[in-house]
# Entry
Amino acid sequence: MAVLSIKFFSLVLLSLVFYYCGPKKLQWAVLPCTSLYFILINNTWYCQIFFFLQVLVTHRCACKVGLKNRIGEASNKDFTFGIIFNILVLALFKYSRFFIMNTLMVIGFFGVDYSLEMSVFEFSAPVGVSFYTLILVGYLCDVKWGKTTPQSSFIKTALLAGNYIHIMSGPFIRYEQVENQYFVAHHFDYKEFCFGLQRVLWGLFKKLVIAARLENSVDLVFNNSTYYNGLYIWLAAFTFMIQLYADFSGLMDIVIGIGECYGIHLPENFRTPFFSLSVQEYWQRWHISLGLFLKDYVLFPIQRSRLLNYISKKAKIAFGKKASRKISSYVGMLCVWLLIGIWHGGAWKYVIGMGIWFWTVIVAEQMIQPKVNAFLVAIHIDPMVFSWRLLKIIKTFVLVAIGNIFFRADSFKTALVIIKQGVSNLNPSATVYYWKLLGSKGDILIVFASCFLLLCVSLFTEIKGDVRIWLSKQILVFRWTVFLGLVFSIILFGVYGPGYNASEFVYRGF
Amino acid sequence: MKRSIIGNIVRTICFIAVFIVLFIILSYILRQHGYDWEHIAGIKNEKPLDVIYVGGSNTFVYWQPLKAFNDYGITSFDMATNSAPADHMLYYIKEAQKYHAPKLVIIEGRSLLACGTSEGGFRNGSDAMSYSINRTFFIHSYIKRNGVEASPIYYYLDLFKYHTQYSSILDRDHWENMFNSPYSKYKGWKFIYSYSPIERPELFLTEECATLSEKHLNCLIELFDYCRNQDFEVLITVSPYAITKDDFKILNAIEILAGQYGFSFLNTNLSYDEMNIDFSNDFYNIGHVNVFGAEKYTDFLSNYINDNYSIPDHRDDKQYSTWFLEYEEFKEEEYNVKKWILEQKEKNMNKEEQ
# Structure
């Protein structure tokens, strides 16, 4: 069931009707029932089994860990079993093909002949396995570390992982963020409900009007990379940045908006990332919940690990205190970035493009930044002036766009070919002709107008906060004009319907 | 507290109402505004009509309502769209009844030869109708009978289908259609600038009856059941064309069924000589007459209606005074088409001689 389908929105509507019109005592059961239905119709039988098995194992392990923590017994065995089981299931569905292919390649390198039908490893994964597995792992860690008490109800643990609102695409939630929201009665709040709908609309606008319209030109260039070169490549890479942002943040707006309709506030996943001054800041504003998850559940434990302490001690002796701190920090970050790369998918393009590339850039930025600051002071430039900040924003945008070329390309090799094509020739005519790939004059106008609107809203959000709050204070005629304008912009200018390939959200695939 | 709840409900209802109105207006603006649309939506702007002629292209290039009015005072309308099959007829009749109380409904027998059509053929009718319960049932019946690949919402709410035509919003002509209320100057008739001689059909006569498929039969029964319970008389006619023996067999079966319901059945393919139809002059393809043929067919059928039905003569009725002016315009264009056809004919003859 695609998010952009009548069926999905009908399910949401029906669920909301039961949620608010049904007996308050049973309100909490509406979300589990809707989610159960959603999981059953979207998964094959074995995916359903694996989902419930993961939840069951996590639930049992969390209960045991919680009990043992309380009575002061060691709970490492249950904890480790729960973590390994979840990671193994994730690896089975998402990375088995990747690992086997690479193992066979290594074997082949040593002259051993092999033949294996790779289609054996092409099977459908449970919907949202990358998202809910990490949520379950995080929950288990929280119980182990005493941050939260284990949930005694299996259904409630299942809802934490399998809530249909966020199972497909996040955001990553933690038990403590939702325990007081999922399992308490919610009274219908007109304002909150309207805010939720407005957010859903804005998400639909971003996806259907901006992302879907930009997709065409990006696909044309990336799928014919030997034909296009120079600025065509870079314009397509920059366009892809906007497309991906509109697509993913649009999806998040829909998810968070639906959550608000239920009276549930899910964590934000984006904070105007294109205004970032550095790549590190970009990743603090992009897919926030993933970054925070990995920081809390991977980076910090790694930094506290014996191995890293050992490396730190050795580095301290060899390079001094300051350098040793940096080295241990960079090693920890490398682990996190490798995980980010692998999380995006079992392919080298993700490991290198989304992992190693961003780690390298962030480390380089951290190393260079003090020298740049000293240089600016020397030549009497205030690093806070707009023009310098703008330059940094552009630099960040370009560096992230290079990483995203790997994300968008079919493979690591193709990404290298695309980058090579990009630097092989300047091709300045692309600045004029690239836009024609977007479609007719009307289409180009719509794209630019909607991107301008996106920029305005982003600027407003960055400076003044939530646009909806500002809108709610305006007079009725103005408000309605804006809302109706938005609705009809989606209906008229959106890319959907018969004859169109109703492409899914990019991040739904994870 | 209560006041704020009521306020919220009222606001929500008003917002939804404004949305619906704008949605409907935009739907009508973005629709295809061809002659098919005029033939369906145009009926609502007519003065009371006594005769409704439903069918496909076999109707709107055959029956000339303005000529029938000029000759006998019959007020009629061609409620017909391209490729309209039997299952459209019921809903066309119901649509006409929303605005008129016809005394006679003529159903084109050739449209009854099949049940079901392509999406394009269906949309000629459905996307011309204003949003209504009749339209909803029409679409529902089409989807049920034929099954559709795309989501049904693209049929029910056609703005979702035509939203790609958004540039039409800037076209002033499209805004004139924002109420889906065109005026059909020639009462559903369509002039076609085309001519082609065809062979006179022979050996199509047979007493055999085809076995109609269950779907086809159900379609006809549904239509006839409805018509039987209405206050109008029903005449099923079959306009002249290059009829085949297979078609004739199906028409025989339809005639028998129509007879069971007490409906008149007139196959004009049995009266070529009486109509003075000339196959070398009166057609533009094997399925359609040109203006020469249409004139003869209208003469024949209006005379038949005048002889067999008591349809009032409205020529002295002041509310139809504009019909005479429209008839003059009709005659003028008819003259041009006839002239064009004769020129084509002459050109063809010269070519043959060369």
